[in-house]
Amino acid sequence: MPEPQAAILARRDVIVAGLRALLPDACVIADETGRRAYECDAVSAYRQLPLAVVLPRNTAEVSAVLRYCHEEGVPVVPRGAGTSLSGGALPVADGIILGLGKLNKILDIDFANRAVVAQPGVTNLGITNAVQHAGFYYAPDPSSQIACTIGGNVAENSGGVHCLKYGLTTNNILGVELVQMDGTVLRFGGKALEAGGYDWLGLLTGSEGLLGVVTEVTVRILRKPATARALLLGFPSSEQGGDCVGKIIAAGIIPGGMEMMDRPAIHATEAFVNVGYPLDVEALLIVELDGPPVEVDYLIERVSAIADSCSAVTKRISVNEAERMAFWAGRKAAFPAAGRISPDYLCMDGTIPRRALSQVLTRMTELSKQYGLGLANVFHAGDGNLHPLILFDANKPGEFEKAEAFGADILRLCVDVGGVLTGEHGVGVEKRELMPCMFSEIDLDQQKRVKEAFDPQGLLNPGKVFPLLHRCAEGGQMHVAGGAIPHPDLPRF
Ligand SMILES: Cc1cc2nc3c(=O)[nH]c(=O)nc-3n(C[C@H](O)[C@H](O)[C@H](O)COP(=O)(O)OP(=O)(O)OC[C@H]3O[C@@H](n4cnc5c(N)ncnc54)[C@H](O)[C@@H]3O)c2cc1C
């Protein structure tokens, strides 16, 4: 992380007093025990005590805190529920954590416009819970949906099982209220389907807390599909499973969800949930079709025929809601299940073109042997979003570093086959140093200019997303794109 500024650390008491002048005492946490609760997000391998934790209750308080920090030059790390899997909400020693958990109200439910206006601390599932009595729901469904916040979802452009058909967060939000680092409150979009000017929502969604603090979100809600049924398909090889995925999409069918697991993941999840997953297959595919019953029945037949043509050796079709939920139970519990087969694991997140699936799976198996670390694969097969779980034991010296290097190789592989570094978990700290694998110096400079337009002093979520120069020097590495040494004006070490 960037070197903390000694001048800020020395003025900690003054800064805390300044924050307490803006908010009630209970909204400013300065003692060590209280701050400890915020020292990491879901990437608990990286930890850092923040200078203080501030918990505003409304947009006006967020604006006042940001204005104060702007004037004092204090960095700010926004935080929702802290479930980030890329270290996005990792604190900095000389900065505050701005927790949005107290902004947790649904402000408006508008069925006529199919929209819900929510404060950023409302959980993802909280939105569906608020509208399901009328047959509506919010489609993007990260597996963390009982905990993660809609503000965090916007910042990470989060996805989930149903995003293949219904889109990611960016396809399901209509408006955002954003507070800039200098305290200015801006509004983008609204309940209308089209807004003039630049596509600000597209820019802000996935900006990982670097451009502003989201204080209100207007989301699109959808009518719940009349029915949903799922197929559980087992294949003798991942290639055949991958082939089936490609053929389903090529046939013009967009399933509500299409998820795959490899043998280690199947065994780990079956031992965890006992739902009858086949243990003699190399790849398990869950395909869900949703819509009017007649359409679903027709599509089930078509997918079933495609599975046969790909030599599926297991084929079960859900006959009721309980069975459909049972098919999903293992996949939804894949992360905790992995905790039973390994003391620690790193969950990676990269995206590849679907056609490269078997090539990437084969190479990952080779890498697993090369590093001597186990691997279990669960992935959003329909959209090519991989979640390899690298199994390791942090108590064994050097294993964490080995797991990190293995993970970096997997992400480079994703880029090499024409994919991208991240599918839905963001760049954060985890993938920061890999950004030059994907973006040229010119690309990165353009991205930094956008950041500077919103936050010229670089106070919002520093140390995230953009590679740090000194890390390249420490690692003895530097990415030279097209023969041009980056930042030639800077002294070399
Ligand atoms: C078990 C588990 C399963 C998961 N499954 C999925 C999945 O299926 N799909 C998926 O996409 N992700 C998944 N995640 C990752 C994570 O839940 C998402 O990235 C989620 O959107 C983070 O939300 P949060 O409220 O916890 O944000 P945090 O972790 O608190 O923050 C994440 C980032 O957003 C920024 N941020 C947070 N709130 C705001 C705000 N109001 N304004 C500006 N910036 C903000 C933070 O600075 C940080 O950079 C999973 C995580 C876990 C632990």
TrEMBL record:
It comes from the Bacteria. The keyword Cytoplasm does not apply. Transmembrane segments: none annotated. Residues 46-224 form the FAD-binding PCMH-type domain. Its cofactor is FAD. Pfam families: FAD-oxidase_C (PF02913), FAD_binding_4 (PF01565). InterPro entries: FAD-bd_oxidored_4_C, FAD-bd_PCMH, FAD-bd_PCMH-like_sf, FAD-bd_PCMH_sub2, FAD-linked_Oxase-like_C, FAD-linked_OxidoTrans_Type4, Oxid_FAD_bind_N, Vanillyl_alc_oxidase_C-sub2. The keyword Oxidoreductase applies. Keywords: FAD, Flavoprotein, Oxidoreductase. GO terms for molecular function: FAD binding; oxidoreductase activity. PANTHER family: GLYCOLATE OXIDASE SUBUNIT GLCD. This is FAD-binding oxidoreductase. It comes from Elstera cyanobacteriorum.
